[in-house]
Amino acid sequence: MTRALVLVVALALSGAAACSSVPSAGPDAAVPPDGGGADADAGPDAGTGEPRCLAHDPLRRAYFGDTHIHTALSLDANLQGTRLTPTDAYRFARGEAVGIQPHDAAGNPLRTVQLARPLDFAMVSDHAEFLGTVRVCQTPGAPGYDDPQCRRYRNQPDQAFMILNALLGQAQGTARPPSLCGATDQNCEGPARSVWQEVQDAAAAALDATPACSFTSFVGYEWSGSPGLYNLHRNVVFAGAAVPERPTSYFESSTPDGLWAALRSGCLEAGTGCDVLTIPHNSNLSNGLMFETPDGAGAARDAAYLAERAAMEPLVEIFQHKGDSECQPGTTAGDELCDFEKFPFNSLSSAAVGAAGTADGGLPQPTDFVRQALGLGLQFEKSRGVNPYRYGIIASTDTHLGTPGLVDESNYPGHGGAGAASRSAVPPGLPDHVWFNPGGLAVLWAEQNSRGALFAAMRRREAYGTSGPRILLRFFAGTGYPDGLCSASDLVAKGYASGVPMGGELTASIDGEPPRFVVSAVRDAGVAGQPGGLLQRAQIVKGWLDGDTVRFAVHDVAGGTGGSVDLGTCQPDGVGQDTLCSVWSDPAFDPRQPAFYYARVLEAPSCRWTSRQCLAAGVNCQDPATVTSGFEGCCDTRFPRTVQERAWSSPIFVHPG
Amino acid sequence: MTPGRAGRARALLHFVIAGALLFAARTWWVRLIPPAAAGVAVSDDDLLLEEGLRLGLAAADPVIVHRLAENLRFAGEASGSDAALAARAVRLGMHRIDALVRRRLIQHAERALERRSRAREPGPGELAEHLARHPGRFAVPGHVQVSQVLVARRPQGAAVARSDAELEARATALAARLHDSNVPPGEAHRLGDPLGLWPATQVASAAQLDAQLGSGLGAAIAERAPVGRWHEPLSSSFGLHLVFVHRRIPGRTPALAEVRGRVRESLLHDRARRDRRAALAALRLGPGVDAGGTR
């Protein structure tokens, strides 16, 4: 108690020292009420009113999870032989071993996977579209069961995969459910409700509501609109057990604002205590559709649309198994590290064409990336008074095997979905097309591992993404941060007290002290006998508005450029750091310019999943005889043999005073 | 050399005749050996296959009916409706040979068993009993309130990692200082290297400590470290950790109300597995034995 009092006083004093750059608006960037983290017997959590978990920390802890998971309830996953249900997916997330496809004639799975470390939270996000279709096509006697589409689903799954998924590419405003559902969706509505209940039951059963708070599940789904096969997908996350009667799919609402309107009426204004947010993903496959520009399609958007987007979408998924969406190589001077896990297509259809090796698909454009969107947001704010792209950042897997958090590069089995299917057999050679990757993780800074605390972290954008490793990352901006803060034991308390955490907002003062930034990171602890990769460097990425022009700069603020890996053994050379920390000031800070800053922390280079599997298979690209069927990707020079795993913080937004 | 038209026809005829002979031989053999015959090893799949048939699931699946009918048509039996041909194919045992029909029928039987097993909602008594029988599945693990001091292998900003000997020497000196001084355990981290983002004092379970520091340390701290005094240095890939356990919060079995959803799912999962085993055992005893679920 005494300690808590001392800390409260200390925080109050240090808060008083903060002056010129004023923390503002960030939905809930307030200083945590105390700094102890040791009193587990106190009352309910102050922020959410939920029962307090044993591991409760007012200075917040990092919780690792996956909010993008498909199971056998998703048509595309189901057609690829995935049999794991939402219940199975949560079992896997909690650390149990599960069997995955292919299956033998007796139905036994031929592969088994298990996480070395359980996740803290997860959300099964099966596609809302076709949610009832799988059930209809699997239930003899159900209306629609004999429809040719259902017959194709049962007898020609590869064709069905292409044809049914093509329905998601119908133009906005014209999208209709598959004919097997009937003219008014009457055949699929009942089954869809039943499946939706199954999704909710699985989440409820997985949630650890005891004070141990060992695992948190969220109810959600994916809205999978892809007009022209360009990606507008969003994951819909509900805060608690109060949810709409059924998910809203592309077939009911074929525009993002239609989805938000449905969520507003069916959830936010339903009087049930329902709360919700949406997370767009794979902007890299949207061909310019995901982030409209102020002088392009966005010019036609009214202020209400822009405000609704800002309200409903506090986060964006920056990375997953279909590639990195941070930035396009070449768009920021000197940022060669943008060239990371880039998906070489701009839509799923061109990826399919590319996969067949018959043509070069279209390439993404700069506005398909999150960094550019953050800049567009500044332009919108200046010209229209609203920033629709004030995004926080997370990452996830988008697994279609029902295996959340399966991000290990060393045993990547493929994730299905848009990637290679293993329905009947594991393909010879590499288990997935070479341009896919194992995906990433979502990380939330929260007082405790409970639905309320985690959802609040999403809302205030105190979140970050990683490309797989469990890197710890803090990022603060404020004033009064001393040079020696990195060595201080109360770095985090001071970070909150004198500024805002990642996702927060600051108002710069014209005559005052410019803000300082603190970035601090700890490498992934790893597991027994296999420590995580060492950290190479920490960077701060800045975007700002210079007149009407968006500019970007990347600053190295800690670490160096060392570290390498032996491609003959995949052993790293041991150069790197366990921790990185820096207190940094922007040498070009101009309080009149709106800006955003986010931290990017990189591991030293390590072997990419392809290199590990090619090495294990004895592939030597100098000796064609060793490049056996399916291993051709090992020698595809378009794809690097090493990766620099990383973490991206949510940005801190600085407004002119 | 390309075979002529007559040659191709001859080859096709040979293929059809050989196929028909093989099919007839297999059918004859299968019919001679009923799946549940005493003394013959019968797989679970065979039992489920026959159960699926008995429950009328073959006739209810248009895919199976169509496929069986097509098989018979291929073998030369052209007359009759799909349903009639499928029934005849089943009498010939064709459902045991066609891989697709076999797999679908087995799956239908498995689903029927599972549906029956899950149909009955477990009562409060059953849930309580399940919780009492499997406390480990739902236990709230023990937690500790612990403070730590770090001797880092790679101190922040250092170009070179410390050697094991240097780490041990520093940790030994630090441990002696902690024993001899009156520094409160919660403040002692200032004597070591910066903890970075780890809390100096926290309440955590063994699993949470493992996630933070790497596997192995969690149990050593949460379960074995003494309470109320400094523990000898513990090693992780980050360096050496001196820990002080303030108190232990014992693990416990939660009340049913706290874990009702998880207990229900676990019970239904177990029941489905048990019912499957019971149903298969009943089927092994022969036809007419009730293969229904446990009550």
How would you characterize the overall build of this protein?
- The complex is a heterodimer of chains A (657) and B (295).
- Chain A is of the alpha+beta class and 657 residues long.
- In chain A, strands 1, 2, 5, 6, 13, 14, 17, 19, 20, 24, 27 and 28 form a 12-stranded mixed beta sheet that branches.
- Mean pLDDT of chain A is 89; it is low at 1-20, 23-38 and 355-360.
- In chain B, helix 2 (44-54) crosses helix 7 (99-119).
- Chain B is elongated, with a radius of gyration of 34 Å.
- In chain B, a hairpin with a 2-residue loop joins strand 3 (234-236) and strand 4 (239-249).
- Chain B has a 4-stranded antiparallel beta sheet.
- With 295 residues, chain B is α+β, with helices and mostly antiparallel strands.
- The chains are: A alpha+beta (657), B alpha+beta (295).
- At the A-B interface, strand 2, helix 5, helix 7, strand 18 and strand 23 of A face helix 7, strand 1, strand 2, helix 11 and strand 4 of B.
Structure summary:
Chain A has 657 residues and is an alpha+beta fold. Chain A is built from 14 helices and 28 strands.
